[in-house]
Amino acid sequence: MKDTSYIGRDMRNESGEYTDLESCKKACLRNCSCKAAHFNGYSNGYCLLLNEVLSLVTATSNNTVYLKVQNSSTPQINPRIEQSPPPVQQTPPWIRQKHAKILLGTIGASMGVVLSISIYFFLVRKKAVQLEDEEEFLDGVPGLPTRFSYEDLSAMTENFSKKLGEGGFGSVFEGELQDGTKIAVKSLKGVDHIKKSFLAEVATIGSIEHANLVKLLGFCAAKSQRLLVYEHMTNGSLDRWIFNGEQEHGLTWHTKKKIMIEIAKGLAYLHEDCNRKIIHLDIKPQNILLDKNFNAKVADFGLSKMVAKDQSKVVTKMKGTPGYIAPEWMSLVITEKVDVYSFGIVMLEIVCGRKNVDWNQAEEEVDLLSVFKRKIEEDKVGEMFDMYNKDLEVEKEEAIEMMRVAAWCLQSDYTKRPSMSVVVKALEGSAAIETNLNYNFSYPPIPRNTMEVSNQKGQARDAISSATLIPSVLSGPR
């Protein structure tokens, strides 16, 4: 633009020298801050490089202004133009199906876990409520023996540290009441909650007072703990005295006879003199305990079968110990006469001083009933007695009478067996012994492996005695 002037700020060339018009233009092109070149003169003049051009005006002098503008050939870049996204790849159908199955499986498993947890807490809560309801029931049961807390029994037994025995029912521990009375605490297992029938039986047994029955002193029913508290018997169980094989540490004939009569009296009381008939179901030497004076007491009857006085038979599952089980158990219809049969076996064991089934004997002598039958047929019952009591001072005829009573109790037809009250009279000599007897004794078969452990000399012991128990010879709570 010729003959113009400007309004704005200038920037001098670095040399400050006059120059020609062409040099002035090039200088502006080289300088990025230069917006225009103002040349004042002709071939030589003064060159001003302008960094701002606010206004141009017409001038009379020879002024020339060159404005720097953008070249129209330079390509324009629009920063607002966005590139298109890459095309989305389609997932194959089989992958989508697999993902769906995994998702459904995960959801199903999660729902299963949640459901299981919910059911668990529901059952736990239900059981807790049931325990609370049933423990409240305790207050309404009349005649219950002393109810101990678990903490009290733990203290009385020195934290259950003195174990007297162990069996299928649980364990038995020695303890002592505050008054110094020795006790035996039986911890039952397999009893998950309080059953009203169980408490009713405890109430019935706890009210029994008889010289030939072990006294149930109390019980504990706290949450999952079920314990029975009995009087402690100093001389342990009968089996340790009749099966020890050492005559000098055994029992005299007088004591043996007294023990048989006392067992019979205890059973007669259970069968006939209680408000409800109580069938023991597991009479054996291990369940006959002896106090410090060798008085015999029937034990382990706390969970036996109770029936009404006018009920002649009862149907129940088989219970008891092999070798002492009456043959009618095979029909599962039983009466109190099953105890009479078991008592007959115990009588033979006491008189002969050996086990009913003893695998340590010669093959033909293993089964005591078979030996008994053979000797009766040969009319040599006295020889049978001599085999096992060579050093025992006894009237042989009296011993034979005892075996005749045993044979009466062992009749296969339970209706032919005497009641226990009649047995007591026969043993005391106040009642005649039946002579028309069937000596074809029958009994359920006894597997060898069932009896082997219990036949180890000196190892079979009772729960409430101070001896060690072998689980295989115990029937557990009934």
Primary descriptors:
six-stranded mixed sheet; alpha+beta; rod-shaped; four-stranded antiparallel sheet; 478 residues
Shape: rod-shaped
Label the structural class.
alpha+beta
Radius of gyration, whole Å: 53 Å
**Order of helical and strand elements:** EEHEEEEHEHEEEHEEHHEEEEEEHHHHHH
Beta-sheet strand percentage? 15-25%
Mean pLDDT: 76
State the share of residues found in helices, binned by percent.
25-40%
Q: What's the arrangement of strands in the largest beta sheet?
A: 7-11-12-10-9-8
Distance between the termini: 127 Å
How many β-strand stretches?
Answer: 18
Main β sheet profile: 6 strands, mixed
Question: Would you give an account of this structure?
Answer:
With about 475 residues, this protein is an alpha+beta fold. It is about 35% helix and about 15% strand. The protein has helices at about 20-30, 95-135, 150-155, 195-205, 240, 255-275, 335-350, 370-375, 380-390, 395-410, 420-430, 450, and strands at about 5, 10, 35-40, 45-50, 55-60, 65, 145, 165, 170-175, 180-190, 215-220, 225-230, 275-280, 290, 295-300, 305, 315, 335. It has a 6-stranded mixed beta sheet with strand order 7-11-12-10-9-8, with helices on both faces. Helix 6 (about 255-275) runs antiparallel to helix 7. The chain is rod-shaped. The N and C termini lie far apart (about 125 Å). The model is unreliable at about 450-478 (pLDDT under 50).
